Amino acid sequence: MKLTKLFFRVMKIMGSRCVIYLLGIFFMSTGWAMFTVMSSLLVKNVVDAAQTGDTHRMRNVIIGNILGGVLSMVIYRAAAIAYNVEAKRAYGKLCKILYAHEVRLPYAYYEEHHSGDFMSKLSYDMEKVGSIYGSRLRRTVAPILQVLVYLVPMLMLSWQITLCLVGVNLMMLLINGVFIKPMKRVSAELAATNGKMTEKLSNLLQGMEQARMYAAGKDTVVEFVEQNKLYAKKSNRKILFTACLESANNGFDLLCALAFLMVGISFVAQGHTTLGALTAIYSLYGNFSNQFLQLGRYLPELVGCLANADNIFKFLEETEEPESWYGDGASEMQGDRADTAQTATARTDTFGKDIPAVEMSDIVYFYRQDKPLLNGFSMHVDTGESVAITGPSGCGKTTLSKLLLGLYPVKSGEIRLCGDSYEKMSNAEIRRRIAYVPQEPYLFQGSIRENIRVGRIDATEEEIVQAAKLAYAHEFIEKLENGYDTEVGERGGRLSGGQRQRIAIARAILKEAPVILLDEATSALDNESERLVNAALKDLHGQRTLLMIAHRPSTVALADRICAVASSGREDCGNLADMV
Questions:
Q1: According to DSSP H, which parts of 178-207 are helical?
Q2: What pTM was computed for the model?
Q3: Burial class (CB in 10 A: 0-12, 13-18, 19+), 452
Q4: Each residue of 408-459: pLDDT tens digit?
Q5: Which of 62, 157, 517, 558 has the fewest CB atoms within 10 Å, i.e. is most exposed?
Q6: Cα–Cα distance between 309 and 306 in angstroms, integer?
């Protein structure tokens, strides 16, 4: 994407407040420049007064310079406050847009991309883009504005000397422009390397046991170290470019100062200008030359940050999950969010009525078109019924759960939940009606109470405890030192597998969804934990519609019916058939 297009897209995020932001930069830059001008003119008038001895005439001029300087500082300070507020607001808005987009991406995106990839975008790239609002743009624009402000009095004091100085500084700026493309390239390379480095680090942290137990773990460490070295190498290249920039700028600054003194002394001796004017020009020249240096330094850095912005915008262009996988028909169910939520909860009390909980008719789904995973599959589950879905691994059981949860759309066929077709429901409404318990439940960093309350945010303490009791979790929670306030650690690491599973079931119960879907909920548990989880499931029999993807005989025995997978192998699974 072209730099100008990237820049305008970054600014567009600010919306109408971009005007306030840009005005803040303008008045902040010109206010500070005017203060410098007033200070230089004050020096000029003081020197001229000392030379001529006419202190009475100069007094009013000097007072005017002081008042002008005070006014300039007031303008600068007010503009600085407005600028900083809008810069932080813009960064916050960008973060909000990015995080909102991240949670709206389809489930398939997370299956196809490593978490380290978008974690790098959420940290490294975001920080660089945020610096555009925070400093990079201002430091690029401010020198231009301030140079223009300085040029006016400098040209009035001595246009000959001023033009000489401008010519030398333009040469310096052209040399700095040579570094723009290399800085952009190295910034993009740094972003890519940081993403790979974050990916390797994420692998190490999430697979620490395997990394320590197997030889391949050492290879992962080596890969991370290699990526780290590559990042350091590319960082050194960027440091080298920056050092070359600063060296060239400082060298030009020294040459300009020497040339100014030689030309200035000559002009004073020939009567082309006064000592006071020369003093004022020299005073302004230091700031004038510094602004050229700043422009030469920060313009390549701004371009580098725009390369990071390109990564962010490419991420934002990833297709989001639609409101419904099945077209506009979902709008019929979206009129009033409160009504739909009440409808979903009300379904839990419709047991005994002639409304099937789940109906799947002629479902076809495939990852590869030449190898259908589900082909004409049909299933009918009555309200309050418990059904076990069994079969060998890789034959569509988990895919079936993803279709029910609305994570994927079916290729053809129809799914009905509590009497309503998926074609007339939003994905959010589908998920409100199903409570899901995976094989390895995820517990968030926080307390046990907070993790159970994930099921329903507005739940009371009594409802949380009751859900824990139904899940056979209350007894072990009470034995913990801090009870329901016990911190579970990252991913629930401070609790056993059985404890995590029972908290997940308590969360599902608290949701009060009419259907509970369990995916191998007991497959990784010891006998005692399995007994307690099965006891919880048995108590839910008749209170909720249970769909249990399972292979353990003890769990399958809890079901009213079995839905088995008829398969000839892992790679070519056949249709699913109901079996009593």
A1: 180-206
A2: 0.66
A3: buried
A4: 888 888 899 988 888 888 988 998 999 988 888 888 888 999 999 988 888 8
A5: 62
A6: 5
